[in-house]
């Protein structure tokens, strides 16, 4: 059991980091997986340089993987540049989660990252590679 | 609470016919509670497939040589078995398809496109699997016919009072309904609904994918016009199913797939169609799979569908009793005495994916999701449920392990 639901995942699920919403955010987006009902919405505040992710918060409900992954994501990207995060490879997040995921659970894990990329793309025109555009469609991210 | 299974079916003994149960999952014995998604296969079916390929395989209907005759006998023999399995008046009314979904699409396209138009109504139910919902929705849209849905009541059963209400909106031409719900295990009164449909001058199309493996089917007694089911849910191979249809309807219908075998004569100016069932079996069919399907029908008939139904009924009652012991578990659907061997439920505070994941780590396979019934999920007010489903090889011990797994999920996420 603890090989899959590692302490760190359960911790992020029960005590999500960055939970909440930013008032007057610079970028927002929300996503829903219609197949299982996982929901995530993310708001971002950028620094004075308009690039650095100063603050990032998320709200949502759903399975442990989707919520924990998004919580881990907020810790990972804080302080990094929007352009860098726009091209953040999914492998980096998956490594952080650290467990093998079947295709179904993969979608749970990547929901938050997809939402974040769409948020940044909409706010700053950062690139949204086709892989993520497709996922954004499937996961009803807007 | 001790459970006494019906003396007519010995699940432990039958289980030994299924090689897949010999393995462990995550170092635990496999408790397979997802037969509604697909059934496991007994040696008898696997051997029938192998033997056919090893001794009798060739293409059917066309050849003059010995092997071809043997293959044709195997294929047509399977058709005959399936006709008997559903008490069809004639084996010529039994069409081999890829699965129940394809059978339902066949009726929607080949009957629906020609026979539906503005002023007509296509009626489905809130309990339908997408395969008996989406084709009708689409064909109604294509033809300009209206599309209506009979809702559920609080018990997860159809509100039949709505039938007459819906009929006021136009000419009901199609009523599409499942015999057993794959989500809630509800058993629908198809005989009664067929009679009503015929009073309206409508055809009755039955999705029997979840029923045919688990209870005796008699298309004549049901009074329906079309009935579709799949091999893989009744211990047969994937890639083959049956659509049964009334002879006069099939003969009047346009074809669906066109090409080899379904023709009488092909000329540049005009092509004529073959007789039913050939008319609906274009190209090389899943020959060996049909033979395997026939073997599955034999296997189930030898056990007796009534015994299978009784066994699952007892398991469902046991499962409901045990689930009632847990706080925060919501079970959807009718009471035990009115449902088939399917139980959908949710655990408060734990997402179905996580429930299913924890259970998997304990060797228990259940399904989590919308079960291809999104309109139903919307009615229930959830995106997904957990579903445990039973079959002839399911043991009460497996339900005990499901319950133990739910306790474990509580501990992990509590």
Tell me what you see in this structure.
The complex is a heterodimer of chains A (142) and B (414). The radius of gyration of chain A is 14 Å and the shape is globular. Chain A is built from six helices and three strands. Chain A has a single domain, classed as Sufe protein. Chain: A, CATH 3.90.1010. A three-stranded antiparallel beta sheet of chain A has the order 1-2-3, with helices on one face. Chain A is α+β, with helices and mostly antiparallel strands and 142 residues long. The mean pLDDT of chain A is 92. In chain A, a hairpin with a 6-residue loop joins strand 2 (38-46) and strand 3. Chain B is of the alpha/beta class. Chain B is built from 14 helices and 17 strands. In chain B, the strands form five sheets. A seven-stranded mixed beta sheet of chain B has the order 4-10-9-8-7-5-6, with helices on both faces. A four-stranded antiparallel beta sheet of chain B has the order 13-14-17-16, with helices on one face. Chain B has a two-stranded antiparallel ribbon with strand order 1-2. In chain B, strand 11 and strand 12 (271-273) form a beta hairpin. In chain B, helix 2 (43-56) packs antiparallel against helix 10 and helix 4 (100-115) runs parallel beside helix 5. Chain B is globular. Chain B starts with 10 loop residues before the first helix and ends with a helix. The model of chain B has no long low-confidence stretch (mean pLDDT 96).
């Amino acid at each position: 059991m603890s090989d899959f639901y590692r302490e760190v995942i359960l911790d992020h699920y029960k005590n999500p980091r960055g939970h909440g919403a930013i008032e007057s955010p610079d970028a927002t987006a929300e996503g829903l997986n219609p197949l299982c009902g996982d929901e995530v919405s993310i708001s971002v505040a950028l620094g004075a340089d308009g690039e650095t992710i100063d603050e990032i918060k998320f709200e949502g409900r759903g399975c442990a993987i989707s919520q924990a992954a998004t919580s881990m994501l907020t810790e990972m990207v804080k302080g990094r540049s929007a352009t860098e995060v726009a091209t953040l490879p999914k492998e980096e997040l998956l490594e952080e989660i650290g467990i093998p995921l079947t295709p179904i659970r993969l979608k749970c894990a990547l929901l938050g990252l997809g939402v974040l990329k769409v948020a940044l793309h909409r706010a700053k025109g950062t690139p949204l590679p086709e892989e993520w555009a497709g996922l954004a469609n499937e996961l009803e991210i807007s | 609470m001790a459970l006494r299974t019906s003396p007519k079916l010995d699940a432990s003994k039958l289980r030994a016919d299924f090689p897949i149960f010999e393995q462990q999952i995550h170092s635990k014995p496999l408790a397979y509670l997802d037969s509604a998604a697909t059934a496991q296969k007994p040696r008898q079916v696997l051997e029938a497939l192998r033997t056919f390929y090893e001794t009798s395989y060739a293409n059917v209907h066309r050849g003059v040589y010995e092997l071809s005759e043997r293959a044709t006998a195997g294929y047509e023999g399977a058709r005959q078995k399936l006709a008997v399995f559903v008490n069809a008046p004639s084996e010529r009314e039994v069409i081999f398809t890829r699965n129940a979904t394809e059978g339902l699409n066949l009726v929607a396209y080949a009957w629906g496109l020609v026979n539906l138009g503005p002023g007509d109504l296509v009626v489905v139910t809130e309990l339908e699997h997408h395969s008996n919902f989406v084709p009708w929705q689409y064909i109604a849209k294509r033809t300009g016919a209206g599309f209506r849905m009979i809702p559920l009541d609080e018990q997860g059963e159809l509100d039949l009072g709505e039938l007459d209400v819906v009929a006021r909106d136009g000419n009901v031409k199609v009523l599409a309904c499942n015999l057993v719900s794959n989500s809630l295990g509800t058993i629908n009164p198809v005989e009664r609904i067929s009679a009503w449909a015929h009073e309206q001058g409508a055809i009755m199309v039955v999705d029997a994918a979840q029923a045919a493996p688990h209870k005796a089917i008699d298309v004549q007694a049901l009074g329906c016009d079309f009935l579709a089911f799949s091999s893989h849910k009744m211990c047969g191979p994937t890639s083959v199913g049956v659509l049964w249809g009334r002879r006069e309807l099939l003969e009047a219908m346009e074809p669906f797939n066109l090409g080899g075998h379904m023709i009488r004569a092909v000329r540049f100016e005009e092509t004529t169609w073959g007789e039913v069932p050939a008319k609906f079996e274009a190209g090389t069919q899943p020959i060996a799979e049909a033979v395997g399907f026939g073997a599955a029908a034999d296997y189930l008939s030898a056990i007796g569908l009534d015994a299978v139904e009784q066994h699952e009924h007892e398991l469902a009652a046991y499962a409901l009793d045990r689930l009632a012991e847990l706080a925060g578990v919501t079970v959807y659907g009718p009471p035990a005495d009115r449902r088939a061997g399917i139980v959908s439920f949710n655990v408060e505070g734990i997402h179905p994916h996580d429930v299913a994941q924890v259970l998997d780590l304990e060797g228990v396979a259940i399904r989590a999701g919308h079960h291809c019934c999104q309109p139903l999920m919307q009615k229930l007010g959830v995106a997904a449920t957990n579903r445990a489903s039973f079959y002839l090889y399911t043991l009460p011990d497996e339900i005990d392990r499901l319950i133990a797994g739910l306790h474990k999920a509580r501990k992990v996420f509590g």
